[in-house]
């Protein structure tokens, strides 16, 4: 255009989206054939639209959406044309007087909307990646916590073992055979406050495969004996019971050993072959 008039930016945007009526599109194409400035602006718009389109998932338009959109835009353009009759003439588009628009002063609102859309997409991508990184760090921390929990449990057992062996409150009990020659010997170390018990025996008599020795904690006050672990002697007659699951805070009057079935028993089976207090 010789007088510096150009196609409105809004019309170029609608033209790039194929939202103009056929007559309007023809008028815009005719102008683009002779105006390098408008062609450059249209090329920039198409590049921006393509870039944003590739960053969002494609969805099929609902039935009749294109027709409703074109009708709405036509009505909006008609109202805008009525309000701008006093403006300098631009290229006529379907009988609507265009507004004179210089591209060096583009519509700030239109480009601001494009910028907001692009920024929202970038923020969404960043938040998605950030959530992925946080989830990966959380999974790694869970593995570390699990390992530390196992190590802490082992450290607690070691501490209980050391307390039972070194605490002045631990009871030292030697068990001997109640009948016959007192060859078998057992030694128990017990800490009542934590229920930690270490029992070591030697010179035990061998047992048939279906039998086992069972250690009993006999509480004070006449309470029922508490099972304190099963054990079978090795080839040398030695055996041990270390930290069996016992309740805390139980004062022991004595300890005893019986011979039970291989699976053990809930109450002692007489006779008690070894005892000590």
Summarize the SSE layout with pairings.
Blueprint: H1 9-16, H2 22-32, H3 36-53, H4 65-83, H5 108-166, E1 171-177, E2 185-191, E3 196-202, E4 211-219, E5 226-231, E6 239-242, E7 252-261, E8 272-276
Helix pairs in contact: 1-3
Labels describing this entry:
alpha+beta, rod-shaped, 277 residues
Describe this structure in words.
- This protein has 277 residues and is α+β, with helices and mostly antiparallel strands.
- The chain contains five helices and eight strands.
- The longest helix has 59 residues, at 108-166.
- The model is unreliable at 86-97 and 99-109 (pLDDT under 50).
The tally of strands reads 8
User: Helicity, in percent?
Assistant: 40-55%
Q: Helix segment count?
A: 5
Q: Unreliable runs, pLDDT <50, ≥5 residues?
A: 86-97, 99-109
Series of secondary-structure elements, N-terminal to C-terminal: HHHHHEEEEEEEE
* Strand portion: 15-25%
Order of neighbouring strands in the sheet with most strands: 5-4-7-8-1-2-3-6
The value of Rg in angstroms is: 46 Å
C-alpha geometry: rod-shaped
- Based on secondary structure, the structural category is alpha+beta
Distance between the termini: 116 Å
Mean pLDDT: 78
Reported for the largest beta sheet, the result is:
8 strands, antiparallel
In short:
The protein has 277 residues and is α+β, with helices and mostly antiparallel strands. The chain has 5 helices and 8 strands; from the N terminus they run H-H-H-H-H-E-E-E-E-E-E-E-E.
């Amino acid at each position: 255009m010789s007088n510096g008039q150009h196609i409105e930016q809004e019309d170029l945007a609608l033209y790039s989206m194929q939202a103009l009526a056929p007559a309007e599109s023809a008028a815009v194409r005719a102008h683009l054939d002779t105006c390098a400035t408008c062609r450059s602006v249209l090329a920039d718009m198409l590049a921006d639209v393509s870039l944003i389109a590739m960053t969002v998932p494609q969805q099929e338009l609902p039935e009749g959406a294109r027709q409703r959109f074109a009708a709405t835009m036509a009505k909006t353009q008609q109202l805008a044309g009525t309000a701008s009759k006093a403006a300098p003439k631009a290229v006529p588009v379907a009988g609507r007087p265009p507004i004179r628009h210089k591209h060096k002063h583009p519509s700030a609102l239109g480009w601001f909307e494009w910028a907001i859309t692009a920024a929202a997409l970038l923020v969404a991508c960043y938040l998605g990646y950030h959530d992925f990184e946080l989830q990966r760090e959380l999974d790694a921390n869970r593995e570390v916590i699990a390992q530390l929990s196992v190590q802490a449990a082992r450290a607690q057992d070691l501490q209980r073992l050391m307390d039972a062996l070194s605490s002045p409150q631990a009871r030292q009990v030697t068990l001997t055979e109640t009948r016959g020659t007192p060859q078998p010997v057992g030694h128990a170390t017990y800490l009542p406050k934590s229920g930690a018990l270490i029992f070591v025996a030697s010179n035990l008599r061998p047992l048939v495969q279906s039998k086992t020795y069972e250690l009993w904690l006999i509480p004070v006050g006449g309470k029922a004996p508490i099972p304190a672990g099963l054990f079978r002697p090795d080839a040398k007659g030695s055996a041990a019971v270390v930290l069996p699951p016992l309740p805390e805070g139980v004062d022991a009057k004595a300890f005893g050993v019986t011979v039970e079935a291989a699976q053990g028993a809930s109450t002692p089976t007489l006779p008690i072959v070894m005892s000590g207090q």
